[in-house]
Write a structure and sequence with these properties.
alpha/beta; Rossmann fold; Alpha-Beta Plaits; six-stranded mixed sheet; about 35% helix; elongated; binds adenosine-5'-triphosphate; P-loop_NTPase; ABC_transporter-like_ATP-bd; transport; ATP binding; ATP-binding
C-alpha cells in the first residue's frame, strides 16, 4: 500500500498541497483527477520521491521513499513530458534502464518490440510525441515496476496503442499486483481502468471514493406523473440535481437503490426510468451537490 499522510508542500511561500491524505491499495489503479494547477503533478512527484514534502509522510509498505534508492528501483514515474537522454537511441535507453532497474525483463522488452514495431536504432528524441510516449511505456513496462506512477499518460497515443497500453497495465495489475496511480483530465480514460478515484482541488481532496461505490450510490431518474407530483418524494435522499423537461422530471439522487425503487413505484408514476450515469456525469452532479462549479474543475 502507498500511504500519504497529512502532506504539505509550498513553492516560494505559496501553498500547493495542504494536508493531503490518501491510501492506494496494492494491486489497485487509482485515478487522480482535478483542475489545472490543483497540485496533481506536485503530489505525484512527491509520491515518486522526486520532490521532498515540507511536512507529512509518504510510505510504501512503511518505507519512506525520498532518497530511498532500493525502493526507487521498484517505482517508475512517467511524467507528462517523458525525458530521454539527448542523442540516445531506443536501444541505448533500454540498456540504461536495464542497468538501473534490477527487475528488468528482456523477454518482455522483445515482446513489446514486436507489438510496437519501433526501430531500436532510432534516436528517441527524433521520434514523434506519440512514439516517444510509446517508448516511455515500453521501457517502463519492461522494467517490471511494482509501482507505476503516470502523469497524463495517454496524451498523444493513438486509439489502438492506447488500448494496447491499457491492456498491458491491467494485465500487470492482475498478474503481479502492480500498483498504479494515474492522473488524468480524461474521465472516460479513468473510468476504463481505475478502481478508485480522487479529485484534488486547490491542493486538497474534495472527493475520494471507490468507483463501484460511487456508481452504485447515485441514480439518474426520469419520472412523470398524471397529476401533481407527490411532495417530498425524495425527502430521505440527497437530491444533487433536479430539472423539468416538459412534463418529465430529471432527478439525480444519492442513496440506496433498494429503498428508492419501491418508493417511486408506490407514487404511481406514468413514466419511470432509472438510467446509468457515466463517471463524468457522476462528478458533475457530485460537485454540483457540494457547491463546486464543475465546469471549472474538470477540463
Ligand atoms: N517547481 C515549481 N516551482 C514553483 N511553483 C510550482 C512548481 N511546480 C508546480 N508549481 C506550482 O504549483 C501549482 C500546482 O502545479 P501542478 O503542476 O502540481 O498542478 P497540476 O494539478 O498537475 O496542474 P495541470 O493539470 O495543469 O497539469 C501551480 O500553481 C504551479 O505553478
Amino acid at each position: 500500500m502507498i500511504s500519504v499522510t497529512d502532506l504539505k508542500k509550498s513553492f516560494e511561500r505559496s501553498e500547493v498541497l495542504s494536508s493531503v491524505t490518501v491510501n492506494v491499495n496494492k494491486g489497485s489503479i487509482y485515478g487522480l483527477l482535478g483542475s489545472n494547477g490543483a497540485g496533481k503533478t506536485t503530489l505525484l512527484k512527491i509520491i515518486a520521491g522526486i520532490y521532498k514534502q515540507d511536512s507529512g509522510q509518504v510510505s510504501y509498505e512503511k518505507e519512506n521513499v525520498f532518497e530511498n534508492v532500493s525502493l526507487k528501483e521498484r517505482i517508475i514515474f512517467i511524467p507528462d513530458f517523458p525525458y530521454f537522454f539527448p542523442q540516445y537511441t531506443i536501444k541505448q535507453m533500454a540498456d540504461f534502464y536495464q542497468s538501473t532497474y534490477p527487475n528488468w525483463n528482456n523477454t518482455r522488452f522483445h515482446t513489446l518490440h514486436q507489438l510496437l514495431g519501433l526501430d531500436l536504432k532510432k534516436k528517441v528524441q527524433q521520434l514523434s510525441k506519440g512514439m516517444q510516449r510509446q517508448v516511455a511505456f515500453w521501457l517502463a513496462l519492461s522494467a517490471m515496476p511494482d509501482y507505476l506512477i503516470l502523469d497524463e499518460p495517454f496524451d498523444g497515443l493513438d486509439a489502438v496503442i492506447r488500448k494496447k497500453v491499457k491492456n498491458l497495465i491491467i494485465q500487470d495489475v492482475a498478474d503481479r499486483q502492480m500498483t498504479v496511480i494515474v492522473s488524468s483530465h480524461n474521465l472516460r480514460e479513468v473510468e476504463d481502468i481505475c478502481d478508485h478515484v480522487g479529485i484534488l482541488h486547490h491542493g486538497s481532496f474534495i472527493l475520494e471514493k471507490d468507483l463501484d461505490d460511487l456508481k452504485s450510490d447515485i441514480h439518474k431518474i426520469q419520472i412523470a406523473f398524471k397529476d401533481t407530483p407527490p411532495k417530498e418524494l425524495f425527502k430521505d435522499f440527497t437530491v444533487l440535481h433536479k430539472e423539468k423537461r416538459g412534463s418529465v422530471f430529471l432527478v439525480i439522487v444519492k442513496g440506496d437503490r433498494k429503498k428508492l425503487d419501491p418508493l417511486i413505484q408506490n407514487s404511481q408514476p406514468v413514466v419511470y426510468d432509472l438510467l446509468p450515469l457515466t463517471l463524468e456525469e457522476i462528478f458533475v452532479y457530485e460537485m454540483e451537490g457540494v457547491g463546486y462549479a464543475i465546469e471549472n474543475i474538470l477540463v
